[in-house]
Each structure stands twice: as C-alpha cells, then as structure tokens.
Amino acid sequence: MGSSWRWQLSRSTRLVLRWCRQQKGGGGEGGRLWELWSYSKLLLRSLCYNSLADSDTLLDCVFEPVIWTVDSITRWFGVVFVCLVVLLTSSVVIIVYLFVIPTIISTYPVLLAVYHLSCGHWILLMISFHYYKAITTSPGHPPKDKLNTPSVSICKKCVTPKPPRTHHCSICNICVLKMDHHCPWLNNCVGHFNHRYFFSFCLYMTLGCIYCSFSSWDMFLDAYSAVESYNQTPPPDQSFKESTAHKCIIFLWVLTSTVAVALGGLTLWHARLINRGETSVERHINRKETKRLRERGKMFRNPHHHGKMKNWKLFFGVETRSHWLTRVLLPSCHPPDGDGIEWDCTFSRRYFLAV
Ligand SMILES: [Zn+2]
Ligand SMILES: [Zn+2]
C-alpha cells in the first residue's frame, strides 16, 4: 500500500517535470517552474557539497543542537558543583571543629590527640591547596600565533594545529593540551598543567574521607544508638546541643564513607591510567588501536609509556628523592615536565627495547 503510493507520487513528479522541460523552450509557466526547480537543486547541492563530508559529518550536524544544550547545561552546572564541593567540605570541617576535636582533646591521650590533630590538618591543607590550584590553573592550550607548532592534525572547531595528545573540549570550546577530561566538579578542563593538582586533590580527598570515616566510627556508633533510643523514649535531660551533635556525627560519617567509596574508585581508575602513561581520552583511542593492530598481527605500543615508576616520577615532577616529600607529600606549585606541545618518546622506545 505504502510503496504503491510512493510510486504514484514519484510518477506524477516525473510527469510534471517532463511537462516543465517541454515548456522550457517556450518561456511559459512551465519554463519558470523548471528554472526554479534547477536553482533549488543547485542551491541544495552547493550547501551540502564538501569533499570531506561523510556520514560522521552529517551525524555531527544533526546532533549539534543536542550537544550544544548538554554542553551549556554542564557549563552552568559546573558552578553549582564547585559550590557543592566547597559547601560539603566546609560542613565536614565545621562539624569536626565543633564536635570531634573537643572530644579528642578531652578524652584521648596527649600523643594520640597530637597525632590526630596533625594528620587531620595536613590532609585538610593538601585538599584545599590542590582543589584551589586545580580550579584556578589553566590546563594549557596550543598557541594560535605560532606557525611551527608540531601538530598531528587540525582542529575543525578552532581551525588551529593540534599538537600530540591535544583534544578539543566542547564545553570550554577550546583545544586543551594533554587533555584528560572536562571535570564538572572543578568547572575546568583537566589537562597538561593541572592534571597533577586534579589527581592529588582526588587522592587526598579520598584519604581524608577514609581517615574521617575510620576515626569517627566509635563516635558514629554512640551517636546512632543515642538517636535510636531518643526516637523510642525521648530522655528529658537531653540538650539541644547534644542531639545536634549526634545528628551531625551521623551526617559526617555517612557523607565521608560515601565519598570515600565513590571518589576512591575514580582515584584508582586515574592511578591506573597514570601507571600506563595514558589520559582518559587516550585510554579509548589506545584500546581501539590495540584491537585494530592485533587483528593485523601487530602489537600496539603507547609512545608515552616510560615504565611504571618513570611514569609516576614524570607525573609528580620527582627528580630527586627529597621531591617525594616536598613535591608529593607537601603543597608544591612546580610546573609539569615539558610544555605539553612537544613530547619526548625516546624513553618509551628504550623501555620497550629493554623489555
Ligand atoms: Zn579545538
Ligand atoms: Zn573543558
């Protein structure tokens, strides 16, 4: 039924066009219609014509409004997410200062209290420093005015050369050097110049949450049983401060345990990538390349993998032994190795030859 209707329609269109073609020479109504049809066809073809156009370009064009909407929402939500991180971290710090530290000072032995105070404040300092630096440090962008920039391709959006490991961020709408991903929790891209700050923030936030969760376990059990018994038979002598403290301790433990699990998983994933000398974007590309080359009987070798220990040293900028203390365990503003444009792959060549 449907196919016969379509056949009838195409037949009638052909008949109309044949009539127009016959009328063309006479300059009548049909001639003008033919002209209009020819112009429309030419216009449509000239709009669609591009020697590089393929199905991917067409899909990109079709999904462009959807991607634009998602990117705009993500950009806007970035500010909300940053406020949320600051708000939740501050709430945990306030609860610790109001209810946990007084208990530690009054009940713990001096040495244990000093240990908890030092450890807690060191983790807080590392979290605050790395979060601030991850937000405020630019991930790095390829230079637009330099003509001799080493590049592997041209960015279609920026129309500039793309150095190796550079990718375009559709949310920031710019190319990012050694792009890892766009992080809504930072409202910033994670790239060459702030990758270390991002990872250190994740690492210390996870450690801080694990530390809080473990050290407040006994207090959480006491608070939980107090709230449970209070709900059954409210004690007449319980003050507002006490009941608030119990609820805050429960909130602290639930929040830090949840974040420890969720962020712990993310940190482990990123640690695995650093171990392999890859970024999140390269993980997908390298996986595809490995599969493609395996089918041809070849082996894929990541040119940015220099061996596990060397990868970590390059990532943290560790050149001497003392750097493990001054650059990893203490706040440090040192820049990353290289400019993010040129990459030395001689390490990996030597490493793979040695293996
Ligand atoms: Zn770009
Ligand atoms: Zn971005």
Automatic annotation (TrEMBL):
Transmembrane portions of the chain: 76-100, 112-132, 197-217, 249-269
Keyword field contains Secreted: no
Main location group: membrane
One MF annotation (Gene Ontology) recorded for this entry: protein-cysteine S-palmitoyltransferase activity
Ranges for domain Palmitoyltransferase DHHC: 153-284
Pfam families given in the database record: DHHC
InterPro entries: Palmitoyltrfase_DHHC, PFA4/ZDH16/20/ERF2-like
Swiss-Prot/TrEMBL keywords: Acyltransferase, Membrane, Transferase, Transmembrane, Transmembrane helix
Keyword Acyltransferase in annotation: yes
Gene Ontology cellular-component annotations: membrane
Domain of life: Eukaryota
Compartments (UniProt record): Membrane
PROSITE patterns xref list: DHHC (PS50216)
Membrane topology note: Multi-pass membrane protein
Catalysis performed (reactions): L-cysteinyl-[protein] + hexadecanoyl-CoA = S-hexadecanoyl-L-cysteinyl-[protein] + CoA
Protein EC: 2.3.1.225
Record-stated family: Belongs to the DHHC palmitoyltransferase family.
Domain comment as written in the entry: The DHHC domain is required for palmitoyltransferase activity.
Protein name per the record: Palmitoyltransferase
Gene field: LOC106531603
